[in-house]
Amino acid sequence: VNNYRQSDARGLYDRLELKAFAIHSEDIAMCGQIALNGAPLFPADARIITHCNTGFLATGGVGTALGVIAAAHKNRGVKMIYADETRPLLQGARLTAWECRKLNLPCKVITDGSAAYRMATEKIDGIIVGADRIAANGDTANKIGTYGLAVAAKAHGVPFYVAAPYSTIDTTLIDGSGIPIEERPAEEIIRLG
Q1: Which sequence spans correspond to the domains of the chain?
Q2: 149 or 4: whose pLDDT is higher?
Q3: What is the pLDDT of residues 176-191, one digit of tens each?
Q4: What are the residue ranges of helices labelled H in the chain?
């Protein structure tokens, strides 16, 4: 960008715009393929837990994990989507629940801490989440709460899936120890209103 003279600004803008549209089109195609590939993972009338926001608000297409859930619902029906609230910013409660309403998907918002209880007390057919970053060995980083959800899923024998495009994979990282985990300001959880 810095190598362009002022007279070349329009040409640079045009090239950047074309690249942006190409990236957007690629994301739409990837999300659609993720949805098609992931939908058969869930049985008819599935009960599914998801964490954070992975729908059309988070991507250029139908979404990653929520795209899979929507495709599963279209193919065989989903009995219930349990959307973790995803503290402290409540992306699940605010965004995923809204997207589910827009898509006419059955959805209940649950507290992050109650997901393990649901696994212990009722049939959960699977958990599906997105990813912020994936290391070369498959280690995955996502929003806080995902790790605990994965551990609970393993303890209860519930399948746990990650739906992510290849652009999320970082082959320069051997494992997840090199992925920085976002830590939010304490005020987000101690201040009310």
Answers
A1: 6-190
A2: 149
A3: 999 988 778 888 878 7
A4: 9-38, 65-76, 91, 97-102, 115-121, 146-156, 187-190
- pLDDT at site 189: 77
Q: Quote the mean pLDDT of the chain.
A: 93
In angstroms, the CA 37 to CA 13 distance is 36
CA dist 48 and 57 (Å) reads: 20
**Residue positions annotated with a catalytic role:** 132
Note if the pTM is more than 0.70.
yes
Of the candidates 86, 42, 36, the one whose C-alpha atom is nearest the C-alpha of residue 63 is: 36
Residue 3: per-residue pLDDT: 59
> Edge to edge, what strands does the sheet with 169-170 contain?
140-141, 133-135, 169-170
Residue 1 pLDDT more than 60? no
Per DSSP, the three-state class of 43 is coil
Task: Tell me the three state secondary structure of residue 126.
Answer: strand
> Can you say whether residue 188 is alpha, beta or left, with left for phi > 0 and alpha for psi between -120 and 50 degrees?
alpha
Q: Which two tokens stand for residue 44?
A: 């008819």
The CATH class, in words, for 6-190 is alpha beta
Contact 49, 127 (CB under 8 A): yes
